[in-house]
Each structure stands twice: as C-alpha cells, then as structure tokens.
Amino acid sequence: MSNMFTSKNPAGVAVAQTSAIFGVLAMGAVNAHMSGLAAARAARESTNSHVLRHQLGQAINYAESIMQVAEGQAAEIERLKAENARLRTAARTSYESARRLAQRAA
Hints:
Keywords: Coiled coil. By secondary structure, the chain is mostly helical.
C-alpha cells in the first residue's frame, strides 16, 4: 500500500487505509460477538442438560417408589389369595359337615 504523503491521491489512500483498519476492527467485533453467542448457547445447553438430569433423577426416584408400592400390593394380593383359598376350604368342610349332620338327623 502506498504512503498517503507520497501518493498522487492522498485522500484515496487515506480512505483505503481507514477502510482496511475499520474492516479488520469490524471483523474482530463480529468474531467476538459470534464467540459470545456460542458461549451463551453452550451455557444454556449445559443448564438445560443439568435441569434434564435432575428431572430424570426425580422421575427415577418416583418410579422406584411406585415400584415398591406395586411390590407391596402384589404381596398383599398373594396373601389374600392364600387366605381366600383357606376360607373356601374351611367353608366347604363346614358345609359338608353340616350336610352329613343333616342327613343323620333325617
């Protein structure tokens, strides 16, 4: 680039040099702005990741507590089935005994 003091067009040289300087400065500002946006996006994604990880942990804990309740209910159902079978047997025995007594009395 020529020197504006020795050039035949010093204004043109000054404009060209000033334009080049401002172009470099503008490019640096745009790069800094884009880097800032990328950093903000990364921070937002990191925050969202932490929030989702926390929500996933809560969902897992809730599912485990529901599973424990379901296991307890399944055990209670099995206990009630066994009790029902015992009562059916007792009722059948009592009915048959009462029927035999009724046949003897008749």
